[in-house]
Amino acid sequence: MKILVCISKSPDTTSKIAFVDQNTKFDENGVQYIINPYDEWYALVRALEIKETLGGDVTVITVGPVADDAIIRKALAIGADDAVRIDADPTDAYYTAVQIAEYAKTNNFDLVLTGKETINYNGSQVAGMIAESLNFPFVSLATKLDVNGSTLTLEREIVGGLQVVEVSLPAVVSCAKGMAEQRIPNMRGIMAARTKSLQVVAPVSVDLLTTYVNYTMPNAKSTCKMIDPTNMDELVALLHNEAKVI
Amino acid sequence: MSVLVYINSNSGLHKSALETVSYGKKLGGNLTVITSGSADDSKLATLGKYGANKVLVDRSIQGDDDQQLTQLIAAAADSVGATTIMFSHDLTAKAVAPRLSVRLKAGLISGAIDLPAADGTVKVNVFSGKAFGSVKVNSSVQIISLLPNSFQPQENGSDCAVESFSANAPASLIKVLSTKKPEGEIPLPEAELVVSAGRGMKGPENWGMVEDLASALGAATACSRPVADIGWRPHHEHVGQTGVAIRPNLYIAIGISGAIQHLAGVNGSKVIVAINTDAEAPFFKAADYGVLGDAFEVLPRLTEAVKKFKASGH
């Protein structure tokens, strides 16, 4: 079983979000990058669990500059066998997906896993785009994944409920909460990660389909109006007359 | 200019479908709706009231398979010469819109929260709702998925024609073994009013109080992550960064401290009420109204006050 896990970097959840260059660029000053949590906790860990029971190889791939080697080494420390970095800025989802699909095409993976979305762009786009580029079936937002021979059994979220589906390999799956539990790399893993293979691949040329023109911050919340806990009529009146939501 | 709107009509016409059609209407030009499944023609025809000129329906496919839906929407887009293709930003859109983007080489804007600006850019949430981005599409065809509760449905037209359509979609590669859908509940992302509770409720046996308030308001219920993790409430009620992201008109948070990961899932709410015993709870910084007090005393009072308000003719 050859599994490709797509990882992306994202700012640590507690990072201050700000923009520079007339609000056209994310301010990276002082930002600590982590592996996008959905990619790490769910996609990568589930891939390792599958490998541990069925054998095979887990490759992690990211599209990014040399600074992203730090998150790749962490993925290797958690247990991935080898890694690929496409040496380019992941400018938009389409660009990123085509780079990954191009690599996947020539390397015969049985299963491609991603997180359900990144916590910086929240688009939930890359996995579906990889699936279409490879012409593989795609199961989005899976919360459970089991392998039986060449078939996957998955539980996925659907509009207003849950569904259990079966799909043949090769396939692309985006992973949501429930799939696996976070793993902390141990010292042996961290040492081993230093010598694992990290292949750097030049990007292919792709036209950008979208451009982020600029960013804005939400208006700061005015201070919270405190209501006397014994006077809930007042709260109801405020929600009706002032907030106009009931 | 021709707009094609995909709607999922499998379990009736959701408010999110009406929102998406109304939004598409505002873009101008001819508006066609494409759907699949077995919804009644008479029901589909009512989409005309929200701006549809015509509804196309392919009854041969069910809508569980993203490859079939991609083929369906691509064929419909080709037949009407669509320059904009719209979805509601739900789980179907998350599976299908990216495929369609690659198929048609059409830029995809996921989770629009407003109509396009004069320069054509569309605003979306980024950094889990902590900021907004304005996105421009560089291709001749654009795909937009609209975040639920971001645009009000606007009804003023009359019924439209419903025609059958065949996409000659390939056989499904996804075999559905079972589907579990709680009946009669409003899908959380579509709810306008949400009552949500956390560990402050002390145990699942105390949820009756939360449900009483929700039913008095006509609200959906939700919960925080720890509560879903320990099994007090079903996982589909979990809102926050790892759960569902919602933007109701009113979010009432009871006994939830307001960790940054929880706020990321609810900070698009128009009005937030926090009820907590801890004056230092971070939720009070994100809320519009705060009640510092014991949920076990405050909740019954609030439910009574809501009932009184409703009884007075509201």
Would you write up a description of this structure?
The complex is a heterodimer of chains A (246) and B (314). Chain A has 246 residues and is of the alpha/beta class. Chain A has one domain: HUPs (Rossmann fold). Chain A contains 6 helices and 15 strands. Chain A has helices spanning 37-54, 69-78, 93-105, 126-134, 187-193, 232-241; strands at residues 2-6, 9-11, 19-20, 25-26, 33-35, 57-63, 82-86, 111-115, 138-148, 151-158, 161-168, 171-175, 198-201, 210-216, 225-227. Chain A has a 9-stranded mixed beta sheet, with helices on both faces. Chain A has a two-stranded antiparallel ribbon with strand order 2-5. In chain B, helix 3 (66-80) packs across helix 4. Helices cover 29% and strands 25% of the residues of chain B. Chain B is elongated. With 314 residues, chain B is an alpha/beta fold. The interface between A and B is large, with 79 and 97 residues.
Architecture blueprint of SSEs:
The complex is a heterodimer of chains A (246) and B (314).
Chain A: E1 2-6, E2 9-11, E3 19-20, E4 25-26, E5 33-35, H1 37-54, E6 57-63, H2 69-78, E7 82-86, H3 93-105, E8 111-115, H4 126-134, E9 138-148, E10 151-158, E11 161-168, E12 171-175, H5 187-193, E13 198-201, E14 210-216, E15 225-227, H6 232-241
Parallel strand pairs in A: 1-6, 1-8, 6-7, 7-13, 8-12, 9-12
Antiparallel strand pairs in A: 2-5, 3-4, 9-10, 10-11
Chain B: E1 2-6, H1 15-26, E2 30-36, H2 41-45, E3 54-58, H3 66-80, E4 84-88, H4 91-104, E5 107-112, E6 122-126, E7 131-137, E8 142-146, E9 161-164, E10 174-180, E11 193-197, H5 207-217, E12 220-223, H6 225-229, E13 250-254, H7 260-266, E14 271-276, H8 283-286, E15 289-292, H9 295-311
Parallel strand pairs in B: 1-2, 1-4, 2-3, 3-9, 4-8, 5-8, 11-12, 11-13, 13-14, 14-15
Antiparallel strand pairs in B: 6-7
